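Example record

Each entry pairs one chain with its bound ligand, magnesium ion.
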Amino acid sequence: MERIGNTGNTGMNDCTNILDFINKVMEECKKEMKNLGHVNLIIAGKTGVGKSTLINGVFREKLAETGMGEPVTRYCQRIEKSGVPIRIYDTVGLELDKERQEKAIEDIRNLIQEKIDLGPDHADEFIHCLWYCIQADSDRFEETERNFIKTIASECDIPVILVITKAYLKKHAREFMEDIMKYNLPVKGICCVLAQAYEDEDFAVKEYGLGELVEKTVDVMPESARRAFTNSQKASLKLKYDESIKIIKQTVSLAFGAGYNPLPMSDAIVLIPIQISMFARITSVYGINMTKAMISSIASSLLGIAGATFLGRTIVANILKLIPGIGTIGGGTISGATAAALTWGLGRTYIKLMEKLFMGDIKIEDLENESVKEEIRNLLKENLAKKGE
Ligand SMILES: Nc1nc2c(ncn2[C@@H]2O[C@H](COP(=O)(O)OP(=O)(O)O)[C@@H](O)[C@H]2O)c(=O)[nH]1
Ligand SMILES: [Mg+2]
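Structure tokens for the complex follow.
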């Protein structure tokens, strides 16, 4: 490994057969999921404003329906589900009488402070953001609600985003939003959403605004929570794409940037573990649960691996053949630029594939189909031709 300038230690040995390869990918994917940690979000607002509907619209799997809700206090329950790196604290109470209302606000403040008091070793439990929901057609934004937002934002030091829910009538919702903005509340963002399509006899609106909410939220989130949030949400494909491109960029600059010493073809085997890490990280961004069968199918179309054994060198040689202008490499060396082009090509193709799996354009069981494999190979050719970024 020392031949490559600054790849760091990937902690992986060569893969000499397909089973090895599959196990390494599985292992890395599991490690990535662990590394993601958790993002913790409080969602507040009166009963019936659409908090549960919003949660289900934004996050993978219908968390509010299927997630385990566990009472944290009388006014707050925690929703979480194994495999999804998010904890949502769903709160009630602002519609209650004054005394209980105060108690509910107190509970939320205590919750935030309690987590901070755990200290930096428990950063995984810190509350990262609060969404305050208010219903567009309520047309009322009460003083209690404003005070609640002011208190949380000033005393607890967490970003608050105001969500105008049930925004069936866009223009009306926007006007309501503008009225609210006049209060100059200490919020980091405000947006109108319709989390679920609405239809009656003479009126139909599609859901909208969820992607915007998610993108605004990630902007105010600490870096440590961003990856977990990106994984959990399903509302913005753009966020997943941007994060994945970042991963390719990091991989390329860390492994094949300045200081990379050209690598003899015979040592090309060391390139593979670097891309395995990249695949695992991108998989975690999309929140796809990989099985051994899926990895095997993808490897056979993407890397041209088939049969029981293979050598990393063969894979690299196979893929390099597809990069225009590199073609015949013979016994030569692999430069940083070539390794980078190969990584970009593989990375972009992998992103496309994850997107298609995520959107359901390709079904998991179809990965085995010749036509799908052909599609993946064509994507790879296209992406390798693009070379760098
Ligand atoms: N069509 C549609 N209905 C919504 C939307 N948000 C909430 N609702 C409806 O409003 C009611 C209350 O929503 P819910 O999410 O349970 O509110 P919560 O009490 O704040 O969790 C339910 O009947 C939802 O179906 C939305 O974006 N679109
Ligand atoms: Mg609810």
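The chain has 14 helices and eleven strands.
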